[in-house]
Write a structure and sequence with these properties.
523 residues, alpha+beta, 5-stranded antiparallel sheet, 15 helices, binds siroheme, binds iron/sulfur cluster
Length: 523
């Protein structure tokens, strides 16, 4: 039902032995990250009324409320349902929020692809009546005999299941990290020809457990637009029927792909659908645009992508981002979209409103994207402490400091304009997708991180472990020699992740080690 029991882990230190710190996190489910102005304002109101005065954009285009008391859950969820927002299926062993590239477009074919996220989401919704009974009506339905779900059965899936939809050449949703990825394919007349179907991506790992690993999805087949729903449903049933129901650490679809291989998986899928699977179609190379700043939609209107540090919409210090967004949305009533990089897009803006919106941004201290460094703009961090019960280290609260240091170092090295994708998580579950970053920082033990290097900036190659147990305050200084070598020996236009991958992590480790040895000799 999209609700997690949590504890304020900061308060643990001062409040030992008491139950007072328990609170809940509520996650809404927003297919393609799309919501109306009214729905945004309802989220904003609920954050004050029942939450901790912040709204958290997630890496899967949802919102989270932190700090909700159990006694307020029902009212909070009812208030969401009043504006047609659900939390059902935002957590649990079920199909999670369906992601899609959120960039607005006037092209009806492309819009249809984005709206397909809703169709998929609706089709794969559980048929339970309990949600409404518990949270909305408050009364047992007349016929409240248990419903056996036609897709999920009595026992649901062995584990969570994630789906994302990408446009050709635009991997802003990190499509390869999903259980199922759909990449739209258009023909020469720019008509939707169908989808390349990918399967078996997933990132969660466990420290010191080699049988768990991050994995990118494999290309499986091409399907026509009218076949895609059936194909995705069939893949969900493969997970349902063959996923490991004994070991939760081995239960994601990626392990089936790894053990069966693509051919056997495709055969099984073919047996479960009523049409012939087709060979994959060629796709253009991916970029990973963040869709920030002012952009034309192609219909005379504009959309504005606003950077939100680690997705946390809050009023802090001089930056009253939450109040500012509320003021803009109240006055101009734009549609709202959340990105997979934890940012927000305001959509369908009349060009004549641009100056007034810029004045409001200034007034509330919301920075235009041009005033944010490339490295900060590309960074992601998960919530980690104090709310996440699985966090080993800080992430969201520490990331701004790490990015400050990166900014200084990159500037000193003459790399200030370089976009390097840095992502940090407080544990190996990978919620901010660090394993597809160019620099992945993964919480390992108290204030110590494993550094991963060599992922592709466009999310098509995994990073590999580089150095382990690096203290938080030493991350950037440790990487400085690698960044210096990058500046000296990169190929023209070569991104940092590609450079690390080409040179090899052993060579880079030697570079770092020789600098450390020199420094120690100097001491
Ligand atoms: Fe996640 C568990 C936060 C995206 C892999 N994730 C959690 C929990 C609920 C901790 C828990 O189980 O008690 C975290 C709540 C923290 C908090 O205080 O809010 C949490 N995950 C998040 C979010 C909010 C991170 C963010 O920075 O935005 C993202 C919410 C997405 C959403 O709207 O649904 C989030 N989580 C991801 C992603 C990225 C993605 O899906 O694109 C991953 C890696 C991809 C994948 O699933 O393989 C991810 N989260 C996990 C895992 C490891 C799953 C695995 O297969 O091993 C866990 C732990 C688990 O499920 O047992 C987890
Ligand atoms: Fe929590 Fe780990 Fe996910 Fe971060 S990566 S939110 S610490 S589960």
């Amino acid at each position: 039902h999209g609700i997690y029991e949590q504890e304020d882990r900061d308060a643990r230190k001062t409040n030992r032995g008491s139950d007072d710190n328990y609170q809940c996190m509520i996650r809404t489910k927003l297919p393609g990250g799309q919501l109306t102005a009214a729905q945004y304002l309802a989220h904003d109101w609920i954050a004050s009324e029942y939450g901790n005065d912040t709204l958290r954009i997630t890496t899967r285009q949802d919102f989270q409320f932190h700090g909700v008391l159990k006694s307020d859950l029902r009212e909070a969820i009812r208030s969401l349902n009043d504006v047609l927002i659900t939390t059902l299926g935002a957590c649990g062993d079920i199909v999670r929020n369906v992601m899609a590239c959120p960039a607005p477009t006037a092209d009806p074919q492309r819009r249809a692809v984005q709206d397909f996220a809703f169709q998929l989401s609706n089709d794969l919704f559980p048929k339970t009546t309990a949600y409404h009974q518990i949270w909305i009506n408050g009364e047992a339905l007349i016929d409240d005999s248990p419903v056996e779900d036609p897709l999920y059965g009595k026992t649901y899936l062995p584990r969570k299941f994630k789906i994302a939809i990408a446009f050709p050449g635009d991997n802003c949703v990190d499509v390869y990290t999903n259980d199922v990825g759909l990449v739209a394919v258009f023909d020469e007349d720019n008509r939707l020809a169908g989808f390349n179907l990918l399967a078996g991506g997933g990132l969660g790992t466990t420290h010191n457990n080699d049988s768990t690993f991050a994995r990118l999805a494999d290309g499986i087949a091409f399907v026509d637009p009218e076949q895609v729903l059936e194909a995705v449903r069939a893949i969900v049933t493969i997970h349902r029927d063959y996923g490991d129901r004994v070991d939760r650490k081995h239960a994601r679809l990626k392990y089936i792909l790894q053990e069966w291989g693509v051919e056997r998986f495709r055969d099984e899928l073919q047996n479960r659908v009523t049409f012939a699977l087709q060979p994959l179609r060629p796709m253009p190379a991916f970029a990973a645009p963040d869709h920030l700043g002012w952009n034309g939609q192609g219909d005379g209107k504009l959309y504005l992508g606003i950077y939100v540090e680690n997705g946390r919409i809050a009023d802090r210090g001089g930056a009253r981002v939450r109040s500012g967004l509320r003021a803009i949305v109240e006055r101009f009533q734009p549609s709202v979209r959340l990105t997979a990089q934890q940012n927000i897009l305001l959509v369908d803006i009349n060009p004549q409103d641009q100056p007034a919106i810029e004045v409001l941004m200034d007034e509330y201290g919301i920075r235009a994207v041009e005033r944010i460094s490339r490295v900060r703009r590309a960074g992601l961090a998960c919530p980690a402490l104090p709310t996440c019960g699985l966090a080993i280290t800080e992430a969201e609260r520490f990331m701004p400091q790490v990015l400050d240091e990166f900014e200084v170092t990159l500037e000193e090295l003459g790399l200030g304009d370089e976009e390097i994708v840095v992502r940090m998580t407080g544990c190996p579950n990978g919620c901010a997708r660090p394993y597809v970053a160019e620099i992945g920082l993964v919480g390992r033990s108290l204030n110590k991180y494993t550094i991963f290097l060599g992922g592709a900036s466009v999310g098509t190659r995994l990073a590999a472990p580089f150095l382990d147990l690096i203290r938080g305050e030493s991350i950037v200084s440790t990487l400085r020699p690698v960044l210096a070598l990058f500046r000296e020996t990169r190929l023209p236009g070569e991104p940092f992740g590609d450079f690390c991958n080409r040179v090899g992590l052993d060579t880079l480790r030697e570079t770092v080690q020789s600098i450390i040895s020199l420094a120690e000799a100097g001491d």
